[in-house]
């Protein structure tokens, strides 16, 4: 099934929750209402015609004015894929977890929480995964400033090269 | 030796009025020290070098070849290195037990040398319960290992120690049961008695005496691998699971003791197998001189032992490690029943042919030779199939 | 036995542990030898590669992709190249695509050799490990001649590859493939079909097909569970359409379907399939340029794309967002090891400590790929 | 364990497979080890056995450096620092600094790729261990030098002709974007051939 048909089916089922469908791209996507994400994902997985049995990729993107969480879905039984997007505000973004729908979301949501600060409620184990527990800030946000030291360990190494030519770079 | 000391005493070698007990004690002490420092410790050390070279060749590598000719002195360098290292005792460990454990392990490795039948007269004490003594004292290792695992106060060490205890205690049973067929056939427990009951030619070794003996010898060999914590039964120190098992917290000389004992024990258990099943030191009587004969017998015994040790190195270079439950099921479901069958079978065999059955011996020997020939064919097959260059020189 | 009071023990395994491939850490709750649970703790090798991508530009990020999965860096190279080409609509010359496939398949063999060798080491047999690494060295020699590096290849560029095949390389590569097959048989006789090996691996941590899909397992791990899916065949990229090869599937012939033995054998079987692809690719390689014209200041149009590449550790998804400048806005890599690692906590329940080591090795998790 | 049949099947499988495995490992006892005894027991230095494309420590031939800064721009980690000044009168470029921080360099080869003359190139040298990070900085320029400039005339400068040949051979190894290079690249000049051909006593697979 083509991506457009999938989005049409989703729109038919959730007419108000699908915000936008962008088709003229390499990978077309649908933007959906964050409050309905768990329901839409449940529908996508359980509907026999769609049967999106695999959450292939889940990632977050910080667009400076908003944060998007992107779901790349895939169906091994029908061999088709779809992309869902959710737009969230940058202050305290939070979203329903899709872990009850696909177990693979567990770690990917932890990663998004760790690096972008999106909280997923309904997640079984919302902890930092890659960064240390006490790391300040969300590293993949565009306004993140790396602390100069962490527990007394310097995080930067001064370049030993002194550039004579200061204009460049 | 007692007679020899008596003669010296009569000649006045120890003064006018020697006290015999002291002389005997001194003599035994000197002899023990000789065996220990001239044979046991160098053997245990040198064999580490041999093992590393054999292992390396199996793995297409070269192995240690820098210290001395072909790396022969590597063992000395390693020993020196270990002695020079800091002896660390963890703060949370039980210091007394922690220090005691390596000595117990070394003790278990030294004691069996007392009854080691190197040749017809080179034996410290030909106890009439020699083989029983041997199995009893080698089992002491487990006390040391368990103690080391417990005293280290490290969970990995503890698991290693407990695994070792489970393993050694379990495999004592098939090992013991595999000794009895020979005892049944010879009616003696003395090491020399068992050796003398066999001949120098393979058809008069107990290995080929009957199918039961053959199976018993294999079980004894595998059990001895397990008792010495050798691959495929190196669970107590399982490097990839338990870091270094019971030896995790040890360093310096104490660590060396554990591994000296491990390699030394290879010699001890190989000696048991050689004595029981491979004709011991028996050699055809080619010279009337007792000294020459003893030397030849000594060489025969050691070569046989080294071949068994080599096989165990070779197994170490081939097989993966079994899991603890498989190790247990191998012992209790396979070895113990088979060992019992061997025991009963041998009893029946001895009842039918009290003096052995030469036909059975020759056919067993033929089967053995055929197996070896087939094995060589497989080796040639694999060597030919691969496109790697052949290289027969033992060193590089 | 129910009256026997036992106490649970908490063990810390890693990050410095001989068999936690790289720097993984597990907190293990065990009851004697049997584990209640192993809780993975990752992040010890986190180098913020996704953040670096936002700072170094499209061309400059290529050497960093080597570090995403340094055991099979060709695939990360290729995925990054493909993502950029998809964003900017660059067409790679056919010879370039062939060079990519040849390099990548050699890398797959090298990576699988490492995996099967590590499996040997993890269950206590050193010899298979050294033999596998010896073979890997020979491949590294070939790749070194091709691109000048043995581990972090940086062979591919946006629009093709950086070097053409050197003179005489094709014959050497074909000769190596001739050498590989008897070695694989020998390896099987030495290790794979060894009774102890089969006993250790069979029936350990079996994963059913539905479960594997649900946890997003990919690549050989997924196929070991019987799911017939290979990106090279089902979403063909590059020139994989030109080749005739089989996708081995797990059958559970040693125990349960999708057990550690199935996953292990999947790699052994893919060795020969990769050799088959390589032989065809080396014979069919066309003439022509290997690198398309791509401007130095590479600025794809604003947009986003996802590419999927069948790496040695399975379907690797690269999600790249471009905002039209010369720096990518966001790069996200979804790797096979990350998904597999997320499953270990569930699979570890009821296994023995020795089985955890087997489980890690059979899932072929590589720390840099998890942490990135 | 199951039936007696499976019991004996297990036994037989174990014996047969261990027998075969032992045969394989025994067959390796009579094969030549693969080890290269780096660094001392080799007939030739290992550096001389490495392929021409090997990406070792960077070297710069200042005599043919054009001062175009392409390498500086291409470096993803800024480990190259070049300072140039354009002399408006003579239209010459004066290079006053050319530093490479080898501690930072990741040997990716992106700098030598755009070099027009092959001045900056990877050598086969890789032994870079040193006692301080400072000593890993290679400073190629003590006093400012005038950058090389390709002459319009056909005759290249005799003094740098050899360097240029070497440099251009190096450049030719790289795939040129869009160029229709022949499938088998031209034979490498004799000087580099020794480096390409394997001289090590390495068992070449398939021989």
DSSP, total strands of chain C: 8
> What structural class do the secondary elements of chain B suggest?
mainly alpha
CATH architecture of chain C: Orthogonal Bundle
Oligomer: heterotetramer
Structural class of the helix and strand makeup of chain C?
A: alpha+beta
**Kindly state the mean pLDDT of chain B as a whole number?**
83
Span between termini of chain C: 47 Å
Low-confidence stretches of chain C: none
Extract low-pLDDT stretches of chain B: none
CATH superfamily of chain C: Cytochrome-c3 Hydrogenase, chain B
- Biggest pleated-sheet summary of chain B: none
**Count of helical stretches of chain B:** 14
Quick one: CATH class of chain C? Answer: Mainly Alpha
Helix content of chain B: 55-70%
**Main sheet of chain C: which strands, in order across?**
1-2-3
Q: What global shape of chain B is seen? A: globular
Q: Proportion of β residues of chain B? A: under 5%
Helical segment tally of chain C? 14
Taking the alpha carbons of the first and last residues of chain B, their distance comes to 44 Å
Task: Describe what this molecule looks like in 3D.
The complex is a heterotetramer of chains A (169), B (396), C (372) and D (207). By secondary structure, chain A is an alpha/beta fold. Chain A has helices at 3-13, 37-46, 105-116, and strands at residues 18-22, 29-32, 54-62, 67-75, 80-88, 94-96, 119-121, 149-150, 153-154. Chain B is mainly alpha-helical. Helix content of chain B is 67%, strand content 0%. Chain B contains 14 helices and no strands. In chain B, helix 3 packs across helix 11 (252-277), helix 6 (141-151) packs antiparallel against helix 7 and helix 9 runs antiparallel to helix 11. In chain D, a hairpin with a 4-residue loop joins strand 2 (80-87) and strand 3. In chain D, strands 2, 3, 5 and 6 form a 4-stranded antiparallel beta sheet that branches. In chain D, strands 1-4 form a two-stranded antiparallel ribbon. Chains in contact: A-C, A-D, B-C, B-D, C-D. At the C-D interface, helix 2, helix 5, strand 5, helix 6 and helix 7 of C face helix 1 of D.
């Amino acid at each position: 099934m083509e991506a457009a048909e999938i989005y049409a089916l989703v729109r038919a089922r959730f007419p108000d929750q699908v915000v936008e469908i962008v088709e003229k791209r390499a990978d077309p996507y649908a933007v959906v209402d964050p409050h309905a994400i768990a329901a839409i994902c449940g529908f996508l997985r359980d509907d026999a015609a769609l049967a999106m049995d695999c959450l292939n990729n889940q990632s977050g993107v910080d667009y400076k004015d908003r944060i998007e969480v992107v779901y790349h879905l895939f169906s091994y039984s029908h061999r088709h894929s779809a992309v869902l997007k959710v737009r969230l505000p940058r202050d305290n973004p939070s979203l329903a977890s899709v872990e009850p729908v696909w177990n693979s979301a567990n770690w990917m949501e932890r990663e998004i929480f760790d690096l972008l600060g999106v909280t997923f409620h309904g997640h079984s184990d919302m902890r930092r995964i890659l960064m240390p527990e006490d790391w300040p800030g969300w590293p993949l946000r565009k306004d993140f400033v790396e602390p100069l030291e962490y527990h007394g360990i310097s995080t930067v190494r001064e370049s030993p090269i002194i550039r004579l030519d200061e204009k460049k770079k | 030796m007692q007679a020899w000391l008596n003669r010296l005493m009569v000649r006045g070698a120890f003064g006018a009025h020697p006290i015999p007990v002291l002389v005997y004690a001194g003599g035994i002490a000197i002899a023990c020290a000789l065996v220990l420092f001239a044979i046991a410790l160098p053997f245990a050390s040198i064999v580490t070098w041999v093992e590393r070279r054999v292992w390396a060749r199996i793995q297409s590598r070269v192995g240690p070849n820098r210290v001395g000719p072909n790396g022969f002195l590597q063992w000395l360098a390693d020993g020196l290195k270990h002695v020079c290292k800091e002896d660390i005792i963890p703060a949370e460990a039980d210091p007394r037990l922690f220090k005691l454990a390596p000595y117990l392990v070394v003790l278990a490795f030294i004691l069996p040398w007392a009854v080691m039948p190197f040749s017809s007269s080179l034996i410290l004490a030909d106890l009439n319960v020699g083989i029983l003594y041997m199995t009893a004292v080698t089992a002491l290792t487990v006390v040391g290992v368990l103690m080391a695992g417990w005293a280290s106060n490290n969970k990995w060490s503890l698991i290693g120690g407990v695994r070792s205890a489970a393993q050694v205690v379990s495999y004592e049973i098939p090992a013991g049961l595999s000794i009895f067929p020979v005892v049944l056939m010879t009616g003696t427990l003395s090491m020399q008695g068992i050796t003398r009951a066999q001949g120098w030619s393979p058809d008069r070794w107990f290995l080929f005496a009957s199918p039961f003996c053959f199976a018993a010898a294999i079980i004894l060999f595998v059990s001895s691998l397990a008792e010495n914590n050798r691959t495929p039964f190196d669970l107590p120190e399982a490097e990839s699971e338990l870091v270094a098992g019971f030896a995790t917290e040890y360093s310096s000389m104490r660590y060396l003791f554990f591994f000296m004992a491990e390699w030394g024990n290879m010699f001890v258990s190989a000696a048991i197998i050689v004595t029981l099943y491979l004709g011991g030191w028996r050699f055809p009587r080619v010279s009337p001189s007792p000294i020459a004969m003893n030397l030849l017998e000594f060489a025969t015994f050691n070569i046989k032992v080294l071949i068994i040790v080599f096989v165990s190195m070779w197994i170490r270079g081939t097989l993966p490690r079994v899991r603890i439950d498989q190790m247990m099921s191998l012992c209790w479901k396979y070895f113990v029943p088979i060992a019992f069958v061997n025991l009963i079978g041998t009893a029946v065999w001895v009842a039918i042919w009290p003096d052995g059955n030469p036909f059975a011996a020759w056919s067993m020997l033929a089967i053995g030779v055929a197996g070896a020939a087939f094995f060589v064919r497989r080796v040639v097959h694999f060597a030919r199939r691969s496109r790697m260059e052949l290289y027969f020189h033992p060193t590089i | 036995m129910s009256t026997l009071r036992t106490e649970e023990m908490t063990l810390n395994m890693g990050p410095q542990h001989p068999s936690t491939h790289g720097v993984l850490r597990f907190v293990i709750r065990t009851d004697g030898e049997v584990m209640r649970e192993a809780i993975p703790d990752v992040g010890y090798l986190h180098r913020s590669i996704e953040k670096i991508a936002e700072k170094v530009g499209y061309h400059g990020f290529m050497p960093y992709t080597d570090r995403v999965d340094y055991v099979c860096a060709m695939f990360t190279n290729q995925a990054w190249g493909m993502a950029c080409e998809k964003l900017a609509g660059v067409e790679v010359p056919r010879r370039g695509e062939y060079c990519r496939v040849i390099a990548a398949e050699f890398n797959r063999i090298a990576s699988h050799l490492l995996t099967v060798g590590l499996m040997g080491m993890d269950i206590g047999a050193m010899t298979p490990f050294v033999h596998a690494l010896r073979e890997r060295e020979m491949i590294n020699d070939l790749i070194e001649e091709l691109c000048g590096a043995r581990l972090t290849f940086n062979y591919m560029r946006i629009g093709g590859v950086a070097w053409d095949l050197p003179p005489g390389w094709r014959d050497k590569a074909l000769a190596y493939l001739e050498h590989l097959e008897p070695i694989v048989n020998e390896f099987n006789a030495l290790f794979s079909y060894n009774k102890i090996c089969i006993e250790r691996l069979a029936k350990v941590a079996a994963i059913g097909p539905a479960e594997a899909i649900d946890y997003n397992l990919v690549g050989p791990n997924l196929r070991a569970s019987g799911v017939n899916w290979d990106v090279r065949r089902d979403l063909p990229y590059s020139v994989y359409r030109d080749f005739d090869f089989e996708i081995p599937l797990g059958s559970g012939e040693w125990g349960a379907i999708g057990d550690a033995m199935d996953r292990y054998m999947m790699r052994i079987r893919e060795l020969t399939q990769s050799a088959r692809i390589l032989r065809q690719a080396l014979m069919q390689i066309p003439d022509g340029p290997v690198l398309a014209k791509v401007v130095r200041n590479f600025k794809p149009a604003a947009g986003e794309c996802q590419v999927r590449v069948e790496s040695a550790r399975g379907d690797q998804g690269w999600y790249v967002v471009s905002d039209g400048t010369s720096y990518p806005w966001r790069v996200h890599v979804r790797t096979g090891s990350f998904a597999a690692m997320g499953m270990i906590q569930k699979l570890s329940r009821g296994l023995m400590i020795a089985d955890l080591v087997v489980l890690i090795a059979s899932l072929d998790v590589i720390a840099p790929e998890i942490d990135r | 364990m199951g039936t007696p049949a499976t019991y004996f099947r297990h036994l037989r499988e174990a014996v047969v497979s261990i027998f075969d495995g032992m045969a394989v490992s025994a067959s390796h006892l009579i094969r030549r080890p693969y080890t290269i005894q780096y660094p001392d027991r080799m007939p030739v230095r290992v550096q001389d056995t490495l392929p021409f494309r090997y990406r070792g420590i960077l070297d710069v031939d200042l005599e043919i450096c054009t001062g175009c800064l392409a390498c500086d721009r291409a470096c993803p980690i800024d480990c190259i620092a070049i300072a140039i000044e354009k002399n408006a009168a003579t239209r010459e470029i004066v290079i006053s600094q050319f530093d490479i921080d080898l501690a930072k360099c990741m040997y990716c080869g992106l700098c030598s790729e755009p070099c027009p003359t092959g001045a900056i190139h990877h050598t086969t040298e890789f032994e870079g261990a040193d006692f301080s990070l400072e000593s890993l900085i290679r400073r190629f320029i003590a006093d400012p030098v005038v950058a090389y400039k390709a002459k319009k005339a056909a005759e290249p400068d005799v003094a740098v002709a050899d360097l240029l040949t070497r440099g251009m051979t190096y450049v030719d190894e790289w795939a040129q974007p869009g160029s229709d290079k022949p499938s088998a690249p031209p034979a490498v000049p004799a000087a580099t051939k020794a480096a390409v051909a394997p001289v090590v006593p390495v068992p070449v697979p398939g021989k």
